[in-house]
Amino acid sequence: MSDPLPPAPLDTDTRDLRRGFHLQPFEDALALEEGASPRTIEAYRRDVIRCAAWLRDQRITTARDITPAALREFVYHLKDLGLAGSSIRRNISALRTWFRILVAEGLVHTDPTERLDAPQRWRTLPEVLSVDEILRLLAAPQLDERLAFRDRAMLELAYGAGLRVSEWIGLAVKDVLLEDGLVRVFGKGSKERLVPIGRSAIGAVAVYLRELRAVLERGQGKGILFLNGQGKPLTRMGAWKILRKYVDQAGIEKAVSPHTLRHSFATHLLEGGADLRAVQEMLGHADIATTQIYTHVDREYLRSVHKQFHPRA
């Protein structure tokens, strides 16, 4: 797809942008020090002005106030406009050159483009299960199986709280606060967070605690919530085998790992309109940029729906 936007005009409004974002020193350095061709200077000038105009709409009016997070949002904005990957990569190259020059000239002290990813480096996620597939998976454990109460509780909690596999096999009994509808999770770096759980997860865990865990416990459970058939804490491999069993029983053909449940948790929340900051907190991400990958996935989902069902797509 070609770049659909025309070059930015040099009107009074644009001249204001040029002052606040040091565009003249940028263009001078491109011509005198970088030896750029007139065509490259014009393309970079247009890309940087476009970014500056978008930043001003976000109430950022000077180059020194630009943050890495703001530039990441600008790149997603370009993708939402429908720009091709080649056009977005050129925009990013222009921004990096812009800030390299501004830093060299002493006009800014930090470079917010250092961690800016180009489209070919955007992270991709494993398969995300649909809501229907999740419901089939959660219904797969049959009550005639000896460990069905444990397995149902484990699946409900893994999906219902968006846990990493290390988190749900490491949960202690005391960390499940059923009366409050919360689980206390110790994530990466032993960072603690409280995650809400719904009625289904609360009920499944309560039944498991009442009906089965005490039977499994033989003095080797170490206070851990989920135990194997020998009464010892469930291992990562044991959890993976249990999940694989029920994925097969549910007739799900996608490649599903324990982390797929976490990805599905986040994606379903955002598709339902959840706030990104709230999802970040529940997932235990230190940087909201990590959570923003799910908004990218959600945008791709919306595009696929539009393409499939809109008569003028």
Describe this structure in words.
- The chain is mostly helical and 313 residues long.
- The chain folds into 2 domains: 12-121, DNA polymerase, domain 1; 131-308, Intergrase catalytic core (hpI Integrase, Chain A).
- It is 57% helix and 4% strand.
- It is built from 13 helices and 3 strands; from the N terminus they run ααααααααβββααααα.
- It has helices at residues 12-20, 23-32, 38-57, 68-81, 85-104, 131-139, 148-161, 165-170, 199-216, 236-249, 258-271, 276-283, 288-309; strands at residues 176-177, 182-186, 192-196.
- It has a 3-stranded antiparallel β-sheet.
- A hairpin with a 4-residue loop joins β1 (176-177) and β2.
- The protein starts with 11 loop residues before the first helix and ends with a helix.
- The model is unreliable at 1-12 (pLDDT under 50).
Order of helices and strands: HHHHHHHHEEEHHHHH
User: Might you state the CATH topology name of the largest domain?
Assistant: hpI Integrase, Chain A
Low-confidence stretches: 1-12
Biggest sheet, spatial arrangement of strands: 1-2-3
What would you call the structural class? mainly alpha
C-alpha end-to-end distance: 15 Å
CATH class category of the largest domain? Mainly Alpha
The helical percent reads 55-70%
Largest sheet: 3 strands, antiparallel
Strand content: under 5%
